[in-house]
Automatic annotation (TrEMBL):
GO terms for cellular component: cytoskeleton. Keywords: Coiled coil. InterPro entries: CFAP_domain-containing, DUF4200. Residues 32-92 form the DUF4200 domain. It comes from the Eukaryota. This is DUF4200 domain-containing protein. Residues 30-76, 145-172 form a coiled coil.
Length: 232
């Protein structure tokens, strides 16, 4: 899963490459003094830091997906507004211009009165059913929206926790790099001091002598020279 995340997230893959290169350089510089346990610990910390970064990216993507679903649900809710307005609409009154029109209208009312009365009950029942259906749909929507909001809140909390832990690992990694730099500097100082001691004792480097970077041999020869001088 971590490898798949690295392929999908160029930034995470780039961070992985940089950390791998930095760790490789640090391991080479600390080969003479760093123990196997320290090396394994550094690799473990780097791996955990990368996993935390990948987890942060996954949580971000999941949060975006939840926001998108929430917007879609809100759009679906807006589609039911016209139906609600239609149910609230009342029959409009008609103005007549003469008696004949009014009489004809009244005659028509008498004719369709019974039919309207019969249909009124059906319409009322249908409206009640629509109200119940709308209320049920609204309740289900509110419940689902509440669940999504709770999930989103939980993910936000987990994201903040992951960011905090990633920051801690980043600080520890920086401390490891600083320690590696100090060890490298100390190693250089020891190498330089050993070379000076070797040359002061009459040692020769280069062609016909020891290699300039063979610190262990130089130190050994210097000790032998001092021991020989002491015995003389």
């Amino acid at each position: 899963m971590l490898i798949l995340c690295l392929h999908k997230c160029p930034k995470t893959h780039k961070l992985f490459t940089r950390l791998s290169m930095a760790l490789s350089k640090s391991v080479i510089l600390l080969q003479d003094e760093e123990t196997e346990s320290d090396r394994l610990m550094a690799e473990k910390e780097m791996k955990e830091a990368l996993e935390k970064e990948a987890e942060i990216q996954r949580l971000k993507e999941e949060c975006e997906e939840l926001k998108k679903r929430k917007q879609e649900m809100q759009l679906q809710t807006l589609k039911y507004i016209p139906y609600r307005e239609f149910l609230e609409r009342v029959l409009k009154l008609t103005k007549f211009t003469n008696v004949d029109e009014l009489t004809g209208y009244l005659e028509n009312l008498l004719y369709i009165r019974d039919q309207l009365y019969q249909r009124e009950t059906q319409v009322q029942e249908h409206m009640e059913q629509q109200k119940k259906a709308c209320q049920s749909l609204k309740d289900n929507h509110n419940l689902l929206l509440l669940q999504k909001n709770n999930h989103l809140s939980q993910l936000q909390t987990e994201l903040e926790k992951a960011r905090s832990e990633a920051l801690i690992w980043e600080r520890q990694w920086n401390q490891i790099q600083e320690t590696a730099a100090k060890k490298t500097l100390e190693l250089g100082q020891i190498t330089y001091a050993t070379l000076n001691l070797f040359e002061m004792a009459g040692g020769v480097t280069g062609v016909g002598g020891l290699h300039i970077h063979d610190t262990e041999k130089q130190l050994e020869m210097s000790c032998l020279e001092e021991l020989a001088a002491y015995l003389r």
